[in-house]
Amino acid sequence: MTEIPDLLARRTAEQKRIRMLLDSMRAEEEAKLKGGEDAVAWVKEELCIGCDQCTIVCDDDAIELYDTPLASPIMDVDVNRKARILRDECTGCRLCALGCPTDAIIMIDR
Ligand code: SF4
Ligand code: SF4
User: Fold this and answer.
1) I want to staple 94 with a disulfide (CB 3.0 to 4.6 A). Which of 35, 54, 79, 110 is the partner?
2) Domain boundaries, the chain
3) For residue 49, which atom of ligand 1 is closest to its CA?
4) Which CATH architecture has domain 36-109?
5) Which ligand has its closest atom nearest to the C-alpha of 90?
6) How far apart are CA 79 and CA 67, in angstroms?
7) Residue 41 contacts by C-beta under 8 Å, 6 or more apart in sequence?
């Protein structure tokens, strides 16, 4: 019969394996992201949850949040916010795309 310490050890090993896999996938994703003066950030509105992380990391004041009606009529919330990029201010540094928890920001050609 499996003992609890064995189970915990297996779980820790599995967590480590998954963490390494996710880190390596993330590193590949980061390496593929465009950046620099020829690139600009773009928000996929349907993925944005208005969490404000991108505005915190953007040093160039190139992101603003705006209120928009909620797509689903069943939910009742006071404010539904989305992020939008100000193209002229965006320097293409990629920080927002790397920091967005829902992968709502992509880098596109300017
Ligand atoms: S970090 Fe991502 S999800 Fe959060 S407000 Fe910015 S774009 Fe939206
Ligand atoms: S790419 Fe950089 S400058 Fe442009 S919006 Fe994102 S964090 Fe701001």
Assistant:
1) 35
2) 1-32, 36-109
3) 3
4) 2-Layer Sandwich (3.30)
5) 2
6) 6
7) 62, 63, 85, 90, 92, 94, 96, 97, 105, 106, 107, 108
Return the H-helix or E-strand segment holding 32.
Answer: helix 4-32
- What confidence tens digit (pLDDT) does each residue in 53-109 have? 999 999 999 999 999 887 777 777 777 899 999 999 999 999 999 999 999 999 999
Q: Which ligand is nearest to the CA of 58?
A: 2
Site to substitute for ligand 2 among 53, 96, 108, most atoms within 8 A of C-beta: 96
pTM (2 d.p.):
0.76
**What are the beta bridge partners of residue 66?**
82
Distance of CA 103 to the CA centre of its chain: 4
